[in-house]
Design goal:
- With 227 residues, the protein is mainly beta.
- 7% of the residues lie in helices and 49% in strands.
- A hairpin with an 8-residue loop joins strand 9 and strand 10.
Length: 227
């Protein structure tokens, strides 16, 4: 099936709200269509990265450059995520409500993404130890966001205060990254149709010791090119 046609079909959803992230001037006001929102989201949220975290075991710090470009290792995998580049300082969010016509949506709110409520969440690792982090940039094709199917107790009447940005420390990062959004405490999903990887990935090995004066120590980093 032609991928563009598949993307233009509006999925069945339990919740009436649809979310689009793009520059504020690009977000349509009034009535719009699902196809228009899909086309806009493909432009407004088009990059991100893949992240994997492993228990390091006996992997030597000086051997990172020999690790595989694609992030495949036999060690225990404790995190496998794709994180879109939400860029809250640059983008806005448009909130659209479905009507009786499944292809007609109405804008009910637009505002700068950085003005949303901020909440902290925690990716792995959440315990002390020695870990490996693999990361690779991606070009993404994402659909508009919808509240996760089957989510319960989500308010259907819209209020801006129900929308929250999730921030997390990822692997060996020293600063927080925006990793997603929730509405009414439930995850917003962004359907992924394609993820084209960069030809370069990065590995690091780091240690977490919450009893130490400095709890995070990066032992080594290396860049690996696609063979």
């Amino acid at each position: 099936m032609d991928q563009r046609f598949a993307l233009a079909r509006m999925p069945a959803m339990d919740h009436p709200l649809v979310f689009v992230i793009a520059p504020l001037t690009e977000l349509p006001q009034g009535e719009t269509s699902w196809a228009e929102l899909v086309a806009l989201q493909l432009q407004g949220l088009s990059t991100g990265f893949a992240l994997r975290l492993f228990v390091a075991g006996d992997t030597p710090s000086d051997g990172l450059a020999q690790l595989p470009w694609d992030g495949q290792l036999p060690q225990r995998l404790i995190c496998d995520a794709i994180v879109p580049g939400f860029a809250p300082q640059e983008n806005a969010i448009g909130v659209y409500e479905r009507s009786s016509d499944a292809n007609v949506l109405r804008c009910i709110d637009c505002f700068a993404l950085q003005d949303a409520v901020n909440e902290t969440c925690w990716f792995y690792p959440t315990h002390d130890g020695r870990f490996l982090s693999w990361q690779r940039d991606l070009a993404l094709c994402l659909e508009p966001g919808v509240v996760a199917e089957g989510a319960s107790q989500v308010p259907e009447s819209y209020e801006r205060s129900h929308l929250a940005l999730l921030w997390s420390l990822l692997g060996d990062d020293q600063s927080l990254t925006c990793v997603g959004l929730t509405y009414g405490g439930q995850r917003i999903e962004w359907g992924l149709s394609q993820g084209t990887p960069d030809r370069q990935s990065s590995w690091s090995v780091f240690t977490v010791d919450t009893a130490a004066e400095v709890s995070l120590t990066v032992n080594a980093r290396a860049q690996v090119l696609e063979p």
